[in-house]
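ok, trying the design again with the full structure, not the truncated one.
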């Protein structure tokens, strides 16, 4: 077992090393690679097995090149989206908490980018109540507009967090036709 070095991952390289896990730059000697998101095309290693969310099984056009490259490089892909229970329910998938944390981190990123406010990282909050408390304590600009699409588990989680902030909610048609 090895871990690829990263400066942006939640768990730092030193934390892995402290547990006796080798941290490496080059993964070409690995037989199986586990990830979450799609791998950049130029980083795909031929004749290897990958596990990640590829977003290709429905032949999504934006990932056609990824699927073609996987085939061309003779890669075995185990797509998390297709690992299902006998009843057809997915075993692995993002859900409510991904939406809650994603919405909160989106607000945090906006504040940092515009040097407007600095929310604590979601990982440093004990729960959603604490995240909501921090978010309510900042003055969101009146011109800020947040568009939320999707009605799945992630979208519903994001909606839950944003709704708890007391933001004005409008339907898509009104958003497109009216000024706010």
């Amino acid at each position: 077992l090895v871990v690829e070095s990263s400066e942006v991952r939640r768990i730092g390289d030193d934390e892995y090393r402290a547990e006796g896990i080798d941290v490496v730059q080059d993964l070409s000697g690995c037989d199986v690679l586990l990830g979450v998101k799609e791998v950049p095309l130029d980083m795909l290693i031929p004749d290897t097995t990958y596990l990640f969310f590829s977003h290709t099984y429905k032949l999504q056009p934006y990932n056609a090149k990824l699927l073609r490259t996987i085939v061309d490089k003779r890669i075995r892909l185990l797509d998390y989206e297709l690992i299902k229970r006998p009843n057809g329910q997915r075993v692995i998938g993002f859900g409510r908490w991904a939406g809650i944390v994603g919405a909160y981190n989106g607000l945090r990123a906006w504040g940092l980018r515009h040097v407007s406010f600095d929310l604590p990282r979601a990982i440093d909050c004990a729960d959603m109540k604490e995240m909501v408390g921090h978010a309510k304590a900042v003055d969101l600009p009146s011109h800020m507009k947040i568009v939320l699409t999707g009605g799945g588990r992630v979208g519903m989680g994001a909606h839950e967090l944003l709704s708890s902030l007391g933001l004005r909610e409008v339907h898509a048609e009104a958003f497109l036709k009216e000024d706010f």
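Keeping the full-length input from now on. The first helix runs from residue 13 to 18.
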